[in-house]
Amino acid sequence: MKNSHLIIAFALALGACKSEIKKEGITNDASKSEIQEVNVYTHRHYEVDQMLFAKFEAQTGIKVNVVNAKADELMQKMTLEGKQSPADVLITVDAGRLVRAKDKDLLQAIDSKLLTTIIPSNLRDEENQWFALTKRARVIVYDKDKTNPEQLSTYEDLTAPKWSEKILVRSSGNIYNQSLMASIIAHKGEDAAKTWGENIVKNMARSPQGNDRDQIKAVIAGEGDLAIVNTYYIGKLLNSEDPEEVKVGLRIGVFFPNQDDRGTHINISGAGVAKYAPNKANAIKFIEYLVNEDAQKVFASSNYEYPVNPAVEVSDLLKSWGIFKEDMLPLSKLGENNKKAVLVFDEAGWK
Amino acid sequence: MKLFRFTYLRRDFNKWSIYTLAIIAFIVIPILTIFFKLFSGPGESWSHMIKYLLLDYSLNSLYLILGCTLLTLVFGVSSAWIVSRYKLPFQRALEWLLILPLAIPSYITAYAYAGFFDYGGSLEFLLRNIGLTSSKFSVTNIYGLIFVLSISLFPYVYVVSRAVFLYQSGRLIEASKSLGASEFQTFFKIVLPMARPAIVGGLVLVLMEVLNDYGAAKYYGVHTFTTGIFRSWFALEEISTAVYLSAILLVLVFAIIGIERFLRGNRSYEISGKSDFKLPKLALSPSWRVLVFIVVSIPILCGFVLPLGQLLYWTVLTFSKVASLSFITIAFQSLGIAFLTSLLTVTFALLVVHFPLWNRIKLLSKSSHLAVLGYAIPGAVIAIGVMIPTLHLDKWLIKVGKQMFDLDLGLLINGTLVVLIYAYIIRFIAVAFNPIEAGQLKIGKSLSESSRLLGKGTLKTFFKIDLPLLKPSLFSAFILVFVDAMKELPLTLILKPYDINTLAVKAYEYASDELVMESALPSLCIIITGVIPILFLNRLILNGTK
Predict the structure, then answer these.
(1) Distance CA B215, CA B509 (A)
(2) What are phi and psi of B398, to 5 degrees?
């Protein structure tokens, strides 16, 4: 604001002196290049991110301005702001939203050798408009005292009659469920996905409610036997400030489904450079910074996420759940099938 | 005929008509923006919506309306009557404690309740310590939602009913009693009908909050129109479908407002002057006293003590993690924004109440009620409604800047506090409008009419007569808006500037990230900043009765 006032005053003064307008243009440019900054629109609001942003500032001298909101709202904002959008980087917590941002023409392709070599191809956009930063797996958890994991096999098996009124899962409004459904649509087609949804609804222990943590607690409370949840939240539960939550975390077992066929469904948190990014070079530097080994180690150790940089080891906690086979479906499919997934959920009666 | 009307129009037209139009336009434009989107037709998923979801949304919203109406009336009117009529232990404390549930955002109350009744939650812990095992009791369903919303919103009804009971009922109760009517008859035949417009006004606020609620309904897995709007807006990416749902929601709200107007009819509840008569409070027999005391304690315990206790426990667990310098900055930013918002909103509400009164065109004098609509529209929808026209303005400014001065201006209005507060004003003007309008109704027209007959101008009369008499209403309005602004969430999320954060947003960020415990500290701060002005409000009502 202040800057623009100054510039207006300056312009008027110059106009009065009948100087050449060009001069004003030069000062304008000069004042712009003085401040090195990058404007980040992010759906992630974790402590660890702020720590990494601060490190990035210290290392490069580029100031990081953060706008925190849900990805959908950020995208709305970017759309409405159009060419004037100050956004440089968009960060979301799922692949579907990144694909949507790309479809809405909010991102631009960037040319970074570093990113394309580090990040596996299924974890980034084929036109290099977005890149994964971290991974989470959607797994099945069970009460170790009650359920024998040998009974478990696949997401599809959860529809078997033996699990009648045993399944706990949150509402279909949740993006992680939508992405899981989108992956099933991609692998098996819409009709099979709908049948899967209907049968899961039949096997639900209760009408969907609460978040992932609540599903895990409900398993231990005995409301159901199995819950479909993200690995990230199991980590959160085990490191909770509430001793009761830690107890719950210790009692559950983690099962990675579909190990004998396509692999366990994974989702990502990822970033892309905004189409009208005023600080494009800084934006690229910023994303590159987040996938380097140091930053990835921080993600892996303090936020219970799987690193995308293959050179970085997963944390001990994540290791204790076991190494698993990932579903290698290109994550762009999750975005492409997102809307279908939402509609299929409604048709299946999954609230 | 038409010609006559036109001459009337010319005769009645004055500058206040223009001002009325201007201020109504200022407030209604963003809402109209959403309305115009209606003409672009329903989205492609509209038939899907009708087939699979609409019935569910309608029934749930209907149950919520009915359930919350019943519960808030029971909690609000009963407690207001008891504290204004009977001598009770801790009388003064009870009076303000009953307003405090309003200081807790209903979604936070919802989280606290879920945590309290959760597996491994506080209830289980407490029961275990006294040697009991609990039977599993789930609150995360529609009945729980009705209870949680009612217990956190009933003070809207309590505040207005108590004001009427305290200010207006004294002489009539005395008369009724001296003519031999029983306490019971007096309450149902005299007090309640007289307080009805005020109570219904409070209830309308409650219902608008209920229909606007997103956080609590989402967490409890109850699908309402508002969750449906968010879903079709963001998950289906169909603004047109969301707008259609909003339109249905608006019809519902219109119906509620219409019913209120119909019930009020043409009756006017002017009391000759302000009642300076204070009815002596009745003493009760000891056993009745205990019973009545328990009755008023229930809403306090459920609406304030229990969620507060849960939040305090969570805060103890997470304090060191959450508290920091940046947290304090956020707290101050929140306060500043809420203060500015309240000031401006009350000013606008005052104008919206009075401009139409001063203008002589009948049609326009009714139009002020349009301004109240903002409160019925979900915050996110208002945010978009504000964003679209202000962006047009911004783009125009950029164009002008480019053409006239060869400047690259960037967005001057969007992304600043101006837009955020503009949206707040639209959202909260109803909150300020209702007490001010009620106050104006109570004052009546006779005083200002006499003043004008004696030759004082409109403005002079306003500043010398209406404004001083309205002071208590203005102050109530200010505080209600302040508390609401502190709590507001969806709109703030979309419109807040870069470098500014609010406590509500911080609490939400934690909660939506499944860090409900961490959200306790910012929630507590919202509650504290809500509690202090509420205590002032209470003192004001008390002073008024002296």
Answers:
(1) 12
(2) -60, -40
Structure tokens at A104: 């809405």
B509 SS3 class? helix
What CATH number does the domain containing A54 carry?
3.40.190.10
* Chain segment A207-219, per-residue pLDDT in tens: 888 888 889 998 9
Domain count, chain A: 2
Looking at the fold, whether A125 and A232 belong to one and the same domain comes out as no
Q: Does an H or E element contain B204, and which? A: helix B192-212
Would you say residue A6 lies in a domain? no
* Residues in contact with A190: Cβ distance below 8 Å, sequence separation at least 6, in sequence order: A340, A344
Q: Name residue, tokens 């608008």.
A: B208
Kindly state whether residue A50 falls inside one of the protein's structural domains: yes
A79 within a domain of the structure (yes/no): yes
Same domain, A306 and A179: no
DSSP A138: E
Quote the minimal CA–CA distance from B446 to chain A in Å. Answer: 49
pLDDT-derived band at A109 (thresholds 50, 70, 90) equals very high
In this structure, the answer to whether residues A245 and A152 fall within a common structural domain is yes
Quick one: which of B484, B82, B436, B433 has its CA closest to B288? B82
The answer to whether A256 and A266 are in contact (CB under 8 A) is: no
Q: Which of A70, A106, A201, A334 to mutate to test the interface with B (most CBs of B within 10 A)?
A: A70
The values of phi and psi at residue B89, to 5°, are -65, 145
Do A204 and A228 reside in the same domain of the chain? yes
Residue type, B522: P
Query: Which one of A174, A214, A236, A305 would you mutate to disrupt binding with B, by most B Cβ within 10 Å of its Cβ?
Result: A214
Q: Which residues of A touch B411 (CB under 8 A)?
A: 81, 84, 86
Do both A253 and A271 map to the same domain? no
| Separation of CA B279 from chain center | 30
Percent of chain B past pLDDT 90, that is, above it, reads: 17
Whether ipTM > 0.90 holds is: no
Residue B545 in tokens: 């009765």
The three-state DSSP-derived secondary structure of B54-113 is: HHHHHHHHHHHHHHHHHHHHHHHHHHHHHHHHECCCCHHHHHHHCCHHHHCCHHHHHHHH
What does the domain layout of chain B look like in residue ranges? 11-37+323-501
Question: What does pTM read for this prediction?
Answer: 0.78
In CATH, what is the architecture of B11-37+323-501? Orthogonal Bundle (1.10)
| Residue A30 domain-assigned (yes or no) | no
Q: Label residue B131 left, alpha or beta by phi (over 0 means left) and psi (-120 to 50 means alpha).
A: left
Q: Are A173 and B231 in contact (CB under 8 A)?
A: yes
The domain containing residue A63 runs over which residues? Answer: 35-135+266-313
Q: How many CB pairs under 8 A join A and B?
A: 140
